[in-house]
Amino acid sequence: MRDTLADYQVSDAQKPFLARVQNYKELIAEVGTLREEMEWTSHNQNRKPSLDKSNNYDKKPEPIYKQAAYDAYQQLFELKEKAAKEILNDWDNIYHMSPGRYSS
User: Fold this and answer.
1) Does 102 reside within a domain?
2) pLDDT by residue (tens digit) across 48-66?
3) How many domains does the chain have?
4) Dihedral angle sign, alpha carbons of residues 76, 80, 81, 83
5) Most buried residue, 2, 9, 75, 103, by CB count within 10 Å?
């Protein structure tokens, strides 16, 4: 059985940390989706349906950095990296607030 957020109690002090992790998760999904769309477009941009299959797939795909959506992808990627750094910078604070943590 998978644990869900409903299976845990999150204190008010921990809620900002949880919000950062949820934001990071959403950014990963957005970055991944946009990357997949750009790769699909790159591979299918110059291909037209034809009975002669040899002509369709000889062309190399256009690099994704040449696509119009690349700037948005880059911005989302940078936001994701920033969110990850914020989470890691606060990692010790999260650990010390965790109920039931093992003491050393």
Assistant:
1) no
2) 666 655 555 556 778 889 9
3) 1
4) positive
5) 75
